Amino acid sequence: MGTPVRTSSDEPPLLTHRGLMEPALEMEFTAHFARRGGEAAARAAAAAVTGVIEAPAWFLASLLDVGRRVSRCLLARTAADVCRIVLTADRGGLALAGTDDTRITLHGDPGNGATGLPLLGVVDGLHVHRGAQGHVWVVWRGPWAPATDAQDER
Does the predicted model carry a pTM greater than 0.90? Predict the structure, then answer.
């Protein structure tokens, strides 16, 4: 478990499995990893970015599983030396992406973010995109946990 994002140590977390708390509108967290570290390095990067969420173990475990799938799909499609895992949270849900593009954000300004890239295909529910410079983006987008979920206490 990581350290949830807070405005100060005595304030509630800004990011939980239910979504963003006021005043946050969007947050993005990135962890770079060396490709030579393979899936173990990618898993560590996914754990780093998901550790900012205060959530029950079941929610974090499912998000880490998505991170493994994203990184495995990315590593099968790139030969780049450095890759990264990107977690983006907004009012609509979460996006977890793996990419060999170390410059562009997932959403960014209109026309600048990776979300506008052409879709190459869908692999195991993951959207695979390729940028103009040949960079690969593997993106998963999911909802926040429903407010009445009985698993909250686990």
Answer: no
